[in-house]
Structures are given as C-alpha cells and as structure tokens.
Design brief:
Length: about 180
C-alpha cells in the first residue's frame, strides 16, 4: 500500500544490511576499548541504529535525543528544538551520533557544538545517508553508508509527516504526495 507513493527505490534493505555490517566492523576497530556512547537521533535513526549495533563487537552504551527541525515539512526549518536530551553526563566520553540522513547539516552541527561544550572526549557522526547537495553548513559525517542525490526520500526511519518510516528500504517519495 505505501509502495504506491514511492517513485523509485534508492537503497534496498539488503544493501542497508551489508553497509551496516561493514560500518559495524569499522566501528568495532575504531572504538575498541573506548566504551563510546552511541546517541541515536529520534525518530529516524532507530531502524539504522538497531541494525548497526548488531555488528559492533565492543562495549558501547546507547542513548537517544529527540530533536526537531523539520516541523512537518520537506526541508529543515533551521530552528533546532531539543525535545529529549540524553540521560547521562558525557564529559570525557567518546560520542558517536547515529543519524538516518544528513541533509542541511544544521541539526548535527548544532549538536556537535553542544557536545563539545559539554566536554565530550570526541564527537563523531555515523549516517545511513548523506545528501551533500542539501548542505547549508560546513559539516561532514565521519562514517557514511550511502551518498544520495538531492531528492526527498522516505523509508527505513525517514518520514514525511511521520509516515513511511516503516518501509524496509529508502525510496524517493512521489512529488504529488507532498505537494498536495
């Protein structure tokens, strides 16, 4: 039923699993003995984070933040609202933000700066998708699974107006769905 609104599939479920496994192996090596905190950005990061952590074979902690910047639209408003902050002190800790997509980069730039102010030992970013054509601030992910074109995508955690998150792949949403 949801598939009728998808113009094309950009990244299949199988491709996501393979990329998460490869990234998990890299994170295992990079964070061996460091006990980092993986901070998932709700709600979109949940499917990717769940897949990713299955492939990380070192001690990690999980935490989540709920940060809003889209407010129901198709582009970031630039206004960052922290609705739920993490639950622990991060001073001296290695932080890895786990994100579904980096588009404008505004949200993550603000979060990275905030965590540096909170004296994190290191702050890095892992993202399922990178959309560099959408970038309006200077920020790059430390770990990227897929670079995608400047199209409006949904699925695998990404939404339009809170819908389509449950698709098992990343697809381009038909324009007529969000221009009604």
């Amino acid at each position: 039923m949801l598939e009728q609104d998808i113009k094309k599939i950009l990244v299949s479920h199988e491709e996501i699993v393979v990329a998460a496994k490869k990234l998990g192996q890299q994170l295992t090596a990079d964070y061996q003995g460091k006990k980092p905190i993986f901070v998932g950005i709700l709600k979109g990061s949940v499917p990717f984070m769940a897949e990713l952590i299955k492939h990380v074979d070192t001690d990690i902690e999980l935490d989540f933040m709920l940060v809003s910047s889209y407010h129901g639209g198709t582009t970031s408003s630039g206004v960052i609202n922290i609705i739920k902050d993490i639950d622990q002190d991060i001073a001296g800790r290695d932080i890895l933000f786990v994100e579904d997509i980096i588009d404008t980069g505004q949200t993550l730039k603000n979060l990275c700066n905030l965590f540096k102010e909170r004296n994190a030992a290191s702050v890095k970013i892992a993202t399922l998708l990178d959309k560099p054509e959408g970038r309006i601030v200077d920020i790059e992910a430390d770990y990227t699974c897929f670079t995608i074109p400047n199209e409006f995508v949904v699925g695998y955690g990404l939404d339009y107006d809170e819908y389509y998150r449950n698709l098992p792949y990343v697809g381009v949403l038909k324009e007529e769905v969000y221009t009604k």
